[in-house]
Write a structure and sequence with these properties.
alpha+beta; six-stranded antiparallel β-sheet; 441 residues; Tick-borne Encephalitis virus Glycoprotein, domain 1; 39% strand
Length: 441
């Protein structure tokens, strides 16, 4: 190896150190980039005389290579944005890119990419897009069953319109009717409707004096209109104790018009206060209140939800009452749990599971092809994307860059010294060449 070889080797050394400095500068520049994975530099020696005898081998030249740190976790910090997501463990979000628009609507490409950059926010179309412009993907949830629809992932798009109203179909009722002797039997012998199928408006005062308040609940019709359903219990027989349930069907009724309607069944209790009939539930057909047709309602109380025990006073104790309908509502927020379930919250208080986020991992993370914006593409070296089982998602959090500024500064000092040393070798080799040339003068 001669002087020219030494100069060439030093030139390659300068290139290698410049390559390392490029990686260092990129790492420092992205020290605040969400989810960024730094790129380190490794050096590989190239020995030109490897086949010669050991005593004739030389140090050779150098080759600078990039070394990925994709598997090195960045610190996770909380965020005030509900749709910001951080991954803990080995996993990546699956994302797509926008390729254009058609009639003002976003068109996404078919290619799938992977990223740990989780600063997602909802755009005008309901898509979750991160700060680099990548669209989050997941599995759509069937709102009826609560299970994912198939295994394929699609871009997540939240419904930005109103959540449709749902008519009430079920009322869960838990109450105790008093077994006190002070509760008398209702006497309808002089009323307009002695069958007690209904109670006319003219008999309302006598009816309320002879019956007990059974509570009230707001139900909803098919259009989402709120309907206040008031209930009263009237004791109609003994041996066994028998009660009838009434609901206020027309609050503005007058004269002989029906104001209260019987739910349609005798409720009987045994001597121990247990309900014997109708057991479990009662179906009320065509429940209508003040002209609002709610429809068929199931009054559900289970095996022990309706009892007749002695109490201190002659009142009905309503322990709980709830129904399953709701008015329409607009989207107010989104949250994600650790399992990756994305839930939309609406102004009517409803929470709907919209999608299930799926994280992916790779056998060879270091072989992933880097893309702009902290994304990666699958390569032969990385292997195919596999569903990750060991990673978790944290909502309202972000993973920071894994760049350590102090470490990068240390590497920069070493790189600078190595660069200067290589340049010094070139200067020394040039001086030696000048000495050789001076011999022949």
């Amino acid at each position: 190896m001669g002087i020219f070889d030494a100069m060439i080797t030093s030139v390659v050394g300068l290139q290698a150190q410049a390559y390392a400095l490029t990686n260092i500068s990129g790492n420092i520049a992205n020290s605040q980039t969400t989810g960024f994975k730094r790129v380190d530099t490794s050096f590989q020696d190239l020995v030109s005389g490897a086949s010669t005898a050991s005593y004739r081998q030389n140090a050779g030249s150098v080759l600078a290579l990039s070394r990925a740190t994709n598997t090195m976790q960045g610190s996770v910090s909380t965020s005030s944005t509900a749709t910001h997501l951080a991954i803990s463990g080995d996993g990546y979000f699956q994302v797509q890119t926008k390729i254009g628009e058609s009639d003002g609507k976003t068109l996404l490409g078919d290619a799938k990419y992977y990223t740990r950059r989780g600063d997602f926010e909802v755009d005008r179309e309901g898509y979750l897009v991160n700060g680099a412009g990548y669209y989050l993907m997941g599995r759509t949830i069937d709102t009826t069953t609560g299970n994912p629809v198939g295994d394929a992932t699609t871009p997540i798009q939240l419904p930005t319109g109103l959540l449709a109203a749902k008519a009430s179909t079920r009322v869960d009722y838990n109450a105790n009717l008093p077994a006190n002797s002070s509760v008398g039997l209702i006497d309808a012998s002089t009323w307009g409707d002695t069958t007690l199928a209904t109670v006319q408006a003219a008999d309302d005062s006598e009816f309320q004096a002879a019956s007990l308040n059974g509570g009230q609940i707001t139900c909803y019709d098919a259009k989402g209109s709120a309907v206040n359903v008031q209930m009263r219990w009237a004791k109609t027989a003994t041996s066994p104790d028998t009660w009838n349930l009434f609901y206020k069907s027309d609050s503005t009724a007058t004269g002989t018009t029906a104001m209260w309607t019987n739910a349609g069944s005798d409720f009987t209790f045994d001597s121990s206060g247990k309900l014997t009939s109708p057991t479990d539930h009662l179906d009320i057909a065509g429940l209508t209140v003040d002209g609002n047709d709610i429809g068929d309602i199931r009054l559900a109380y289970g095996d022990d939800g309706l009892t007749e025990y002695s109490t201190a006073g002659a009142t009905v104790t309503v322990n709980s009452i709830a129904q399953d309908g709701y008015a329409s509502g607009s989207l107010t927020g989104v949250s994600v749990d650790t399992s990756g379930r994305l839930t939309a919250t609406y102004s009517n208080g409803q929470q709907v599971d919209v999608a299930e986020l799926t994280l992916f991992s790779f056998a060879g993370d270091a072989g992933l092809r880097r893309m702009d914006g902290g994304a990666f593409a699958v390569s032969r070296e990385s292997g195919p994307a596999l569903e990750s089982s060991g990673a978790t998602i944290t909502g309202q959090a972000l993973e920071a860059s894994n760049v350590d500024i102090a470490d990068e500064f240390s590497k920069m000092i070493i790189t600078q010294q190595a660069y200067s040393a290589n340049s010094k070798v070139i200067s020394t080799a040039d001086n030696m060449m000048q000495d050789i040339l001076a011999i022949v003068r």
